[in-house]
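hey so i finally got around to running the thing on that chain from the lab meeting. sorry it took forever, my laptop kept dying and i had to restart like 3 times. anyway pasting the input first so we r on the same page abt which one it is
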Amino acid sequence: MSETVPTREAIEIAHKRVEPFIHHTPVMTSQFLNDLSGAELFFKCENLQKIGAFKARGGLNSILSLSPDQLENGITTHSSGNHAQAIAFAAAKVGAKAFIVMPENSPLVKINAVKGYGATITFCENTQEERERVVQEIISETGATFIHPFNNYEVITGQATAAKELIEDVQDKLDAIIAPVGGGGLLCGTALSAHYFSPGTKVYAGEPEGAADAVLSFRSDKIQKAPYVKTIADGLLTTLGDKTFPIIKAYVTDILTVSDEEIVGAMRYLWERMKIVVEPSGAVSLAAVLKNKELFAGKKIGIILTGGNVDLGKLPF
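ok and heres what got predicted. didnt touch it at all, straight out
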């Protein structure tokens, strides 16, 4: 596996590698949301991606980068849902076993999808420590290769392909791109793609107030945990890693926090006005733009809608 920050060439190679297996998702616009925000918004619809989330890109790139020896005993990871699906999906594509550790309170829609791709699920308490402990047990028992959900350069390189497509598809140069931040894999990939393919395009992150570790880390120059964790955005609960944090510090302009109420409001606009299914974590970027209108007023803004895996029995509206 790569031990260096992804280069422009690495992102281009990753894009060619994953292209046969993914959707080139559409970029959509909304006059209503342009008027509401005072900006020109371009939505990269990764909610329409294979597995219903951008994570298919990183999962595929990481697994397609492994040698036959590394695949022989299977793949393992820990995830509350979308990365779990990505690894299960990608492992099935190459005929490898997948051993997935999921928190016991993961959304049912994501659990069922992981099972549907043929993976073996082990449930654990929803703490980072428990996730990592159970994964280590699986590695000891099976010899499986571990693919970290975000703190892995192949994963980051795969996630970078979403912003690369967005930049290429929006002919006019974007003033900024905004992505949600959990562990930072997508944000890092987005920031690197902007740096290489659209110099001058700023990159921002949206983060839930109820999982505000990245903003604390960003401001204090060291990786911090959130003071409390309570948010509807279940895909953004993890803290930054030693690979993601330095990239974020180097290439991201700022991290903007939003409340659960603001996330649900943005999610509702996307459902009602754009007629697209977006999960709470996927609506965080729009929520951050609507909360910070003066920052983005009159500008061309790319927004990555990260996923659409919603538990329809537990809609927040």
